[in-house]
Design brief:
This protein is mainly alpha-helical. It has a domain at about 50-135. Helix content is about 75%, strand content about 0%. The chain is built from 4 helices and no strands. The protein has helices spanning about 10-35, 50-75, 80-110, 115-130. The chain is elongated.
């Protein structure tokens, strides 16, 4: 017996909306971070002690990259769209993880570099796990 979420595959249009919502949410997060860090009198909340944050960032990037590449291989092997769709959504969420982390760093320090790099990582996840696969 199929589980309720396995009864049918999501359409490419629905999955496109999911991706758009993920990207839109991250862009909104960045806009809020930009607005807050450009307020008069704003000071970084995390001026020192960035070593732990840096190593945590490396770990997040490494885990997200490794799992994303493994998921890409798994999605390519999966013939059933009902099983492929959840794997793709998980991969996109992993692609969003560095962008969220970068947004937090942006809010704490005012430096948007990790946020922008995280957004590029999210777009890379979208490209590695496309809506339509070549068959």
């Amino acid at each position: 017996m199929a589980l309720p979420w396995q009864s049918r595959s999501a359409s490419p249009a629905t999955l496109g909306l999911v991706r758009l919502a993920m990207l839109g949410g991250m862009l909104a997060f960045g806009a809020v971070a930009w607005y807050l860090t450009h307020q008069p009198g704003w000071r970084p909340s995390l001026p020192t002690g960035l070593d732990a944050f840096f190593y945590a960032s490396l770990g997040i990037w490494a885990v997200a990259t490794a799992v994303l590449l493994l998921l890409r291989a798994r999605v390519r092997r999966e013939a059933d769209p009902r099983r492929r769709t959840p794997l793709m959504v998980v991969g996109w969420a992993l692609g969003e993880m560095p962008a969220i982390w970068g947004g937090i760093y942006y809010l704490l320090t005012g430096d948007p570099q990790r946020y922008v790099t995280g957004l590029l990582f999210l777009v890379m996840a979208f490209l590695l796990l496309p809506l339509r696969t070549r068959e």
